[in-house]
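Try this one yourself first.
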């Protein structure tokens, strides 16, 4: 995955997380047009960058406070 595309996807994930509208990882993958595995990798990279991005099982979404 190209770095520019990856950065744009991460930005989209964070924007959706701010509004608690990512959905499940599978739903997020569908929204972004990537596979679930790519979502997991992107979320892990975001977390490695020091951003707290928890997943709420109750709300079924990633959240960003």
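Now uncover the answer:
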């Amino acid at each position: 995955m190209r770095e520019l595309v990856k950065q744009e996807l991460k930005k989209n994930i964070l924007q959706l997380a701010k509004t608690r509208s990512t959905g499940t990882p599978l739903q997020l993958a569908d929204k972004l047009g990537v596979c679930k595995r790519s979502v997991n990798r992107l979320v892990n990279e975001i977390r490695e960058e020091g951003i707290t991005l928890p997943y709420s099982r109750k709300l079924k979404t990633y959240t960003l406070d």
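Discussion: Residues 3-62 form a domain with the Arc Repressor Mutant, subunit A fold (CATH 1.10.10). The first strand starts at residue 55 and ends at 56.
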